[in-house]
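4.2 Preliminary Data

To establish feasibility before requesting continued support, the project team ran the inverse folding procedure on a target of 419 residues. The structure was first converted into the token representation described in Section 3, and no sequence information of any kind was made available to the design step. The complete token record follows.
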């Protein structure tokens, strides 16, 4: 007879019974969740390092590692482009500083004196006549008859005064757009309207002079100063100019051939077209291969300009290919130019631009204008905001901006005539 508490030798798996806890009994504690604190984590529970296999783990167990960040190729390319742009800008700024700013800071206001003067003297007026020596005769009468000398009228006018007699006046005559005297004649015509299909405004000053010395140049503040500059109206008044026009911005360079009022500052070859006004009143324009500085000076250079380019060929026809930069040639800009008809007869031409009343001209249009005016030589001066024409000490055109000038071309009376 089996005992009451006896059990069979092979019993089934025990069945887990639900345990009924009394209401007042506390609930069983759950496995605590460890919070992240600043406390040191025990070595046995630390998270293994990236790609490190925990001790005692198998290949099937997960490896603790940080997730890899995705490559942001688009942002990297953008950053590289920005860095390249910034680097390029930095290089340009450094270049501009050492090439433009630093030379101005170190050499600005340096006075440059002429090295010599043109050896040739101004030509003697053709009106001066040589009186022949009296003939001595051996047949002298015993009682010579005394006769009163016949007065001889002497024409003291210069060759150009005789040739352009209808342009000069015995006294100074001024109007709003003209000036005449025994030595100078200036008339300014203003054109405003359609020219070559575009609305343009330009000014043509027709100029006659009795003597080459009525045509002069003037540096800012009265002396050639490296990067020197002065207001155009102040320069005109200080120089006694009847009419003036901006020049070729020559004082930003220390090379090339430069002769002003017969004084030589530089006599080097250069890559720009050259314009020369000689003492005899003739004007020639040259490409770099067509002249030698020493020959130009020896021929009697009175003024030279080196901005360019020349605008008319040797036959007085408008050029279409120019020795200059693309910007100077193609930009629709204000322009200033010097034209030559014959000795003693010249013109200043200034075209407004970059404004409602004037588009501005490209170089081919400007060259065509000088051909239309009948000039046989023409030369382009500095343009843009530098294009300024003054008359009686006041601006006559409407410049596109304000810019002080380094020098001007001007027409003035000689010392013996005041106005």
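Position-by-position output of the design step:
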């Amino acid at each position: 007879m089996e005992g009451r508490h006896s059990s069979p030798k092979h019993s089934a798996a025990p069945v887990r019974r639900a345990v009924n806890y009394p209401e007042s009994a506390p609930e069983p504690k759950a496995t605590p969740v460890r919070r992240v604190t600043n406390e040191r984590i025990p070595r046995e529970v630390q998270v293994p390092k990236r790609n490190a296999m925990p001790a005692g783990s198998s290949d099937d167990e997960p490896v603790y590692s940080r997730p890899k960040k995705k490559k942001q190729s688009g942002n990297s390319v953008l950053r590289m482009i920005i860095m390249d742009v910034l680097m390029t800008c930095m290089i340009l700024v450094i270049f501009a500083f050492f090439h433009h700013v630093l030379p101005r800071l170190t050499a600005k206001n340096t006075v440059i004196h002429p090295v010599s003067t043109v050896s040739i003297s101004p030509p003697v007026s053709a009106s001066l006549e040589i009186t022949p020596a009296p003939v001595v005769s051996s047949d002298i009468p015993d009682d010579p008859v005394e006769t009163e000398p016949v007065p001889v009228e002497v024409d003291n006018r210069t060759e150009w005064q005789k040739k352009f007699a209808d342009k000069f006046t015995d006294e100074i005559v001024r109007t709003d757009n003209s000036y005449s005297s025994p030595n100078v004649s200036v008339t300014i015509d203003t054109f405003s309207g359609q020219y070559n299909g575009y609305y343009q405004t330009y000014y043509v000053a027709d100029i006659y002079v009795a003597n080459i010395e009525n045509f002069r140049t003037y540096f800012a503040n009265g002396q050639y100063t490296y990067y020197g500059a002065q207001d155009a109206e102040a320069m005109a008044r200080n120089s006694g100019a009847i009419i003036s026009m901006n020049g070729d911005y020559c004082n930003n360079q220390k090379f090339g051939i430069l002769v002003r009022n017969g004084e030589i500052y530089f006599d080097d070859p250069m890559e720009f077209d050259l314009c020369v006004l000689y003492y005899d009143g003739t004007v020639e324009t040259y490409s770099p291969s067509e002249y030698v500085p020493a020959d130009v000076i020896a021929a009697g250079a009175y003024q030279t300009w080196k901005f360019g380019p020349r605008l008319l060929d040797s036959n007085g026809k408008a050029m279409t290919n120019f020795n200059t930069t693309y910007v100077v040639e193609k930009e629709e800009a204000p322009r200033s130019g010097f034209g030559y008809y014959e000795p003693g007869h010249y013109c200043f031409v200034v075209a407004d631009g970059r404004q409602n009343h004037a588009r501005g001209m490209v170089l081919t249009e400007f060259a065509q204008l000088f051909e239309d005016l009948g000039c046989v030589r023409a030369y382009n001066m500095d343009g843009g905001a530098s294009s300024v024409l003054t008359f009686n000490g006041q601006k006559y055109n409407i410049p596109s901006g304000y810019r002080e000038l380094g020098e001007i071309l001007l027409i003035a009376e000689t010392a013996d005539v005041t106005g």
